[in-house]
């Protein structure tokens, strides 16, 4: 306290804010910033348990127990099952995280997978669930695990997908479970694999053959057809895969492995986390679980995130939110620490790209109570179109594409752009007028259709596309609604309306976009009738209903203050003081709105820049140069010379230790308005492959928070030389095209100063030549370019001026021609190479003569006047067409900096 009293009053007042900022930032990254040295110990063991209908069938399970290293007594436990096809290693990272939070974590490989014995019964209560019960017995016998009672460990269960259903079923079957966190899992396995979007029984559902086949490829060994699946599961799968239909017995078998029939038995508080990009277990599965558990009076909370089986773990902000919610839930309900978590509902949506690293950015939202899939409000959008005829292809081939099972990274992109493809003649659509205002959809849309079929039966797939004004269509997360209809009339005028519930989505549909309801006859992920057929499809009503959620509050990143970071309070205070000093410095600089009149019309002035790091390393000791309008300036230097540091200071990514940078006379500080006059490319190109070029540019520009009207799309595309390629999907771009798209992105505001770091990196010679033309074209109309490159020959041909940095200091700057200077080596283009070589070999002032490979000679004249050499050649009857000095920028560069380097990095 005495130390704090001695601080200046301004710092004392700012200290609480600084500490809060540091704690918030720490909380946001704590799962990746935990100590490098393991804070846990591990113990591998093969645990034999007895399960089966009578509880007498032994099976060996491969386990690892993670124990907190600093525990001073028994601690609560977490049982951690894995997803389908995985092993205990699949959850090792999460197990370590929870162990470091003070839990004894038992990760294990389920029966039928990895080194564990037994067969796969799909989370059957008699097998996988009883296996987990015996593991609870094993935990209860461990002295390191705290107990609620004899043979009753304090324990939570955390699992995703296959492991998530296990958590639900185990909690229903064993009341010793204190809390569960099921993620991206199912409610009714029969509905998941036999979806029917009209509410008809699952036996009439459309078989999800793509995901089912992916599951049955997830085991090895055992039966060559079904791997390590139990015989009853194998036979049920073979029947559905062969006929495309389910029997009542197959549906009952799948329901036995489903939480749906036993939700009323779950007394353990439940946090349900479900993915929005999930064509396997969509949001409707978590919705059904939430309603069933809440009906029994059990505390339940729902959270949606942008990942899923098609979207992976989602962006970092989503991962942090999910981890925070999980730890908060376990801390209260298993550890008994902290206030009871609220039952608010949280969700997120992809908002665009990070302006710095081009990673996906998500916006999080919350409301006080879970509204379900119908939202709190409903918007109606009129769609229209005449009845249309569509064909079902024989054998279901060729088929449309919605999603591709098991391609997480591709699915992540699909969550933004979609990977859908419909086939001509096999689909029809009904379209809205352009929206007058944006709609934030959060839930399951509905639409009514009518179908006629000469056979009285039809299988169709209903989809909702978001179509932008340029015609680019997006099928959110690749989600579709399968429908099997029976008892249909042969003519459309007799067909009755059927309400189709589309998959729940989270998406902002922008003003000016249209919505398109597509009805298709095929999809590669589903089994369709093998016989060819023709259906007539019409709207059953003119309105598409879109659920929205009113009163949503944005989730601030600083809200993720995890309780355990308070243990780092002293370190946070120390860091907080540093933050206060930096804030004070920034405020001081930002209050300076004056313009240095001498530099007011100069794009860039770097005035005696210095950057020294905390470890004493001086990356830049004294760098000063100017970039004028119309110039293309090359920033050169060996590795470690200080180029990258200079660019980082220029972009406001780090503060200088001394000196100033002026952009058009304005002192440059982070957040300065003058930065809008500067564009930059400081990393390699990174775009969403399933958006076309122009949509990538629009998404980036929107992520910067600036109006679309302020972007110069046409001009940037023209300067970058992209042409019609701007409307192609980026996945079809070459590396050079992506680099040019990145250049266009930096040019969108037509900044008066363009800063590029290695723009030709990875390009082939023709692409480099094109990039050279792009940069020269840009440095017109009073604009300027600063380019850092290690390709000296390209700098020599592209740049008007160069700045050479070595060991943090300027060693040369000025026009490229002046830096290159005169040369003792000259190239002669002559009419008779052999005769010229004979003449030159006989001259006393010539040290060497060599062919240049192009019909000329390279001659080292050792200071002799060129005119005398030319005269000797002419006297000998040799015509001299051209005399060119051979000194290159590379020669000058090596003369200036020598051959030494500082390693492969450049600070």
UniProtKB/TrEMBL annotation:
It comes from the Bacteria. Belongs to the ABC transporter superfamily. SMART domains: AAA, PepX_C. Residues 604-832 form the ABC transporter domain. GO terms for molecular function: ATP binding. The chain crosses the membrane at residues 12-34, 561-584. This is ABC transporter ATP-binding protein. Keywords: ATP-binding, Hydrolase, Membrane, Nucleotide-binding, Transmembrane, Transmembrane helix, Transport. The keyword Membrane applies.
